[in-house]
Design brief:
This protein has six helices and two strands; from the N terminus they run αααββααα. The chain has 167 residues and is mostly helical. The model is unreliable at 156-162 (pLDDT under 50).
């Protein structure tokens, strides 16, 4: 519960979160195993969420080297379903508080839209420049106590929006 608003952890919503999580995922042995026992896995997850006994599992960590070396942490499937449940709940509360040009994890936005918007800015501002930043270990450094207090204060959907002017 956040403030006086509860997250819908009904069995139907757990199933909905499973389908949203599953969409577009590649077949992996872990996903195949979870899917084979899908009904019992989702029922157990639902029971744990409703009884207050749910505990997040351990992250699996591995290294990827593409343009740079990155440590990737992946939660177990059941936890990613819970992440999806939380995302859907928090999205409705927070989305309208973001500026127009926040592009990550938002409906109707994404990498391609951000690139196109950037190109549009550059065409109209030929002397301008773009700065792309990546803060190392950002999420690892978030103070969870502070974050939980912010979430508690923000219990109702926002009514104000900040929109960028079209170019």
């Amino acid at each position: 519960m956040i403030g006086n608003v509860s997250i819908d952890v009904s069995l139907a919503n757990v199933w909905r979160s499973w389908y949203r999580f599953r969409s577009g995922k590649r077949r992996t042995p872990e996903l195949e195993h979870f899917s084979y026992y899908l009904e019992s896995n989702l029922k157990q997850l639902w029971q744990e969420l409703n009884s207050g006994t749910y505990k997040h599992g351990q992250y699996k960590k591995f290294i990827v080297i593409d343009t740079k070396r990155r440590e990737i942490s992946v939660a177990p499937i059941r936890d990613r379903i819970v992440h999806r449940l939380l995302y859907d709940y928090l999205y409705s509360i927070y989305d309208m508080t973001f500026i127009y040009d926040a592009w990550s994890c938002r409906k109707g936005k994404g990498l391609l839209g951000a690139i196109e918007r950037t190109e549009k800015f550059l065409r109209h501002n030929s002397q301008g420049f773009i700065w792309r930043a990546d803060i190392t270990k950002f999420f690892d450094s978030v103070d969870r106590f502070v974050l939980k207090n912010i979430l508690k204060r923000k219990s109702e959907p926002a009514t104000k929006t900040i929109e960028a002017k079209p170019i």
